[in-house]
Amino acid sequence: MKTELRLRIDALLADELQRLAQKPGVSKAAILEDALRAYLDHSASRDLDDRLRVRLEQISSQLNRIERGLHILQEGFGLYLRFEFIATAAVADGDEAARAIGHQRYQSYLRELGRRLAHARSFRDVVMAQAQDGKNAS
């Protein structure tokens, strides 16, 4: 079913439309219908592109924060391991007192890790707060 529409267009545009419609098998209505369809399709895809662009920018920002956090984690863990290997001597076989101290330190580490995870306070947050305090003090 077709709907009749009336419209007014610029004279130069009307002349161009008339020239295009002179080709065999082409009508003004078909040209205008195709042009309107292309415009509406493009408009709809542009709206979708705009919505997707906003979401992709949000995802990109989140990934950048994750990457930064992982970098901090990597550096912090590497530094920790370096100091741990430097500061802690190997335990001799049969030295149960040293093993008990090591086990106690490991249990303390697990408790602290569990506490931080339970309260959602990250090591990164602590480091960043201390870094800000250091900047403010200087």
Q: If you had to describe this structure to a student in words, what would you say it looks like?
A:
By secondary structure, the chain is mainly alpha-helical. The protein has a domain at 90-138. Helix content is 79%, strand content 0%. The protein contains four helices and no strands.
What share of residues are in beta strands? under 5%
Low-confidence runs: none
Order of helices and strands: HHHH
Question: Quick one: how many beta strands?
Answer: 0
Supply the helix-strand structural class: mainly alpha
Binned, the helix content reads over 70%
Q: Can you count the helices? A: 4
Report the oligomer.
single chain
The mean pLDDT is 82
User: What is Rg?
Assistant: 35 Å
Shape: rod-shaped
Name the descriptors:
mainly alpha; 138 residues
Topology:
Elements: H1 11-21, H2 28-87, H3 96-118, H4 123-137
Task: Write a compact overview of the structure shown.
This protein is mainly alpha-helical. It is built from four helices and no strands.
